[in-house]
Amino acid sequence: MQAITYITALYQTITKELNCIGSWFSPLILRLFVAWEFSEAGFEKLNGTNWFADINFPFPFNLLPPDISWAMATFFEVVGAIAIAFGLATRFFAVSLFILTIVAIAAVHWPSEWNTFGELFQGYRFTDKAGDGFGNYKLPLIYMIALLPLILNGAGKLSLDYLVRKVLIK
Q1: What is the residue range of 40's domain?
Q2: 108-117: b (≥16 Cβ within 10 Å) or e
Q3: Which of these ranges, 3-7, 16-20, 129-133, has the smallest mean pLDDT?
């Protein structure tokens, strides 16, 4: 019985320490992952040529000229990634990138046609095979899942958002 009490106490101590460390570092690691991935796409757009004219964007995004869509995507991927890395206006930029990713899935990554869930799931993959009709929405979906904790919980304790909140609430 004493061994069970010791093991339970040890488990609770370890869990308490991990929770403390996790509340500081887990959101930071997630933010850095998201920032890296979106900044890569943003800097590629910043240094590349606009290929948005060749895409059929869903409504209401199809109402914007391709140059404006390109500039907006580039802005949110570069500035949003930097802001998220530092934890500044994290929820705003996470929601913005979430919406941007939904548009990207709808315009580029979604299967061109599907009639069954089996056909839809063929697009859950990483591929560079453009034009095969199956889509490739796995990576954007992973990005959306990574953005959700930042939207729901914010940037965490190692962030400018946390620092600003502490200074303002003082």
Answers
A1: 26-169
A2: bbbbeebeee
A3: 129-133
Residue 1 lies in a domain: no
Rounded Cα gap, residues 114 and 119, in angstroms: 5
**Residue 132 placed within a domain:** yes
Phi/psi-derived region of residue 38, left when phi > 0, alpha when psi is between -120 and 50, beta in every other case: alpha
Number of domains into which the chain is organized: 1
Per residue in 121-163, pLDDT (tens digit) is: 666 666 666 566 666 778 889 999 999 999 999 999 999 999 9
Q: Which amino acid is at 98?
A: F
State the number of CA atoms in the 13 A half-sphere of 20 facing the CB.
6
Q: Is residue 81 part of a domain?
A: yes
For 87-130, give the secondary structure using H, E and C: CCCHHHHHHHHHHHHHHHHHHHHCCCCCCCHHHHHCCCCCCCCC
**Residue at 7 is within a domain:** no
Q: How confident is the model at residue 87 (pLDDT cuts 50, 70, 90)?
A: very high
